[in-house]
Amino acid sequence: MPKEQKQKRLKKEEETLPSPPDNPRQCHFWVKQHLASDPNQTQRERIPCPYDTSHTVYKDELEKHLAQKCNSRPKPNPPYFSLNVNCTLPPSSDLVTEEKITLSELSKEALDSLIDNVNYWYQNFVPKNFETLILDHEVVKERKKEIIINSKHVDQQASLLGHMARLKLLQPDGCFIEFGCGKGELSYFTKLAIKDESNSVSFLLIDRKNTRGKFDGGIRETGSSKLPVLRIGMDIKDLDLSKLDFIKNKKIIAYSKHLCGSATDVTLKSLVNYSKLNKNENSIIGIIIALCCHQLCQYHMYPNHQYLEDIGITNNDFKRICTMSSWAICLDHSSREALGYKCKRIIDYGRFKYLQESGFDVELIYYVESSTSLENLALMAVPRND
């Protein structure tokens, strides 16, 4: 820096610095974050940063700060980001912005009518008695011995791995995509279950939230070499798989242990969209998703509006069914539980038909006992051999 410019900068900083306090008990440090709230401020105005209000910035330098300096400024979107690409309807749709009506606000007549409709839809359009098939896998046995108090998660992982083996999805040249992966523990055990000597398997972990204690390192480590592992922090509704180079020309196995509400719907939409673009390649060879949290479903993300229309479910009906799936406002406990169960199955069967109509052979299977998890139904699909 030239000498004149340096002197000019030092002089500018000296003019900005407040004088030391008269009271020795007051702080002698200069904290620029405090300047924004200084009532006697006569210097250049400071304002909170729009990206992160924990720090302030000179108002006349705001534009430069936001563009170049702020560590909290949003990162540029990757090529595979496409806003709401996996939503069935745009969020701006009138069907999305309609006024919300809670069940407690319904009249007794309206509520009774809704209950009658749920019973009608379930009895006439939803198959009964889905198969219960609880499996295990050897790679989780040691883990089960370590977990003494709460082994429910391990039991679910073991059964899902068992079903992946049953459907011949544990392929050594596959690309395994875990949606809503959290720490990635299921992918870690999936890696252990794959008999891979060529190290040609790869893992894609997707979750919009960051988390501690990730299993990414354990998945990647294979002795002398390392497996390709990519973690994406993004909402699934915005993920365009067709623009993701990591999975190109690979056989995809998609899976998740408890994918909440609409996350399941946008996941199915993303996989079907990708499958349609790669129709002649059988790019997606398997899907296994343990379903949960139906009360979080949203109409504009649900993938099978045609199914809802065919059986007579409106947008408002759908919202109320989702709420009723975790029933808690009237009737006795057993009746509420039975009605909530019916609501879940109505939603799940629409997902079943969506995959079926998209070229998959589909199963809805109870993969663990209800004592292990009340959310014990899994959606499983493989490409149909036409």
TrEMBL record:
Question: What Pfam families does UniProt report for this protein, alphabetically?
Answer: TRM13, zf-U11-48K
Q: Where is the composition biased (Basic and acidic residues)?
A: 1-15
**Presence of keyword Acetylation:** no
- CHHC U11-48K-type domain location is 46-73
Note the InterPro entries from the entry. Methyltransferase_TRM13, Trm13, TRM13/UPF0224_CHHC_Znf_dom
Question: PROSITE patterns attached here?
Answer: ZF_CHHC_U11_48K
Q: What is this protein called?
A: tRNA:m(4)X modification enzyme TRM13
